[in-house]
């Protein structure tokens, strides 16, 4: 059973999400929060697996709440899905850096919402192509003088792991990476897990950010389809 926490300042929206989520046999709503401070507290007390977090709330907003959850070692397994009105929300970059696992627009189809919770609960990133493009654009626009991770943070990765990381940044799933590199899906998943561990990334979303911030890939670059040795 996946334990879900709802964080939105509008009670009607929370009620709608609750009805939808509890219509699924594998999902359970364990709490509701009307602001970010309450969301961060309930995530800990209710042992939530996934938080559906509205980004704009009075007082402590969803961005700060996501930071608090990500900074708490006791909440290392909690995944945050940011709820936005538009996919072009200006907080995309900050939210991913803060620890969010992905984004979902509030007018998404019911089946999309249910699938999103399941995807994030498995530890995968929820980044639609449009959100990924927005994220890459935001990174590219950041001043060159701004502090970014140095490329040497990738020194601990093997050549194959860097190749896999570039494909993750291109938005490919484990299955797609496996097909591109002639690997088994399990091997591809293992590579991604090792990359996340070595880089200290919470999930695939942060791997994408690091790939661009360190210059492993650049906006507009197409991943090399040719397989290489390990």
What does this entry look like structurally?
- With 230 residues, the protein is an alpha/beta fold.
- 47% of the residues lie in helices and 12% in strands.
- The chain has a five-stranded parallel beta sheet with strand order 2-1-3-4-5, with helices on both faces.
- Strand 4 (79-84), helix 4 (92-98) and strand 5 form a beta-alpha-beta unit.
- The protein is globular and about 50 Å long.
Topology:
Elements: E1 2-7, H1 11-21, E2 27-33, H2 36-45, E3 50-54, H3 62-71, E4 79-84, H4 92-98, E5 102-105, H5 110-121, H6 129-141, H7 159-169, H8 174-181, H9 185-199, H10 204-213
Helix pairs in contact: 2-3, 7-9, 7-10, 8-9
Large-scale geometry: globular
* First-last Cα distance: 38 Å
Approximately what portion of the residues adopt beta-strand conformation? 5-15%
Structural classification: alpha/beta
Would you summarize the structure shown here?
This protein is α/β, with parallel strands linked by helices. It has helices at about 10-20, 35-45, 60-70, 90-100, 110-120, 130-140, 160-170, 175-180, 185-200, 205-215; strands at about 1-5, 25-35, 50-55, 80-85, 100-105.
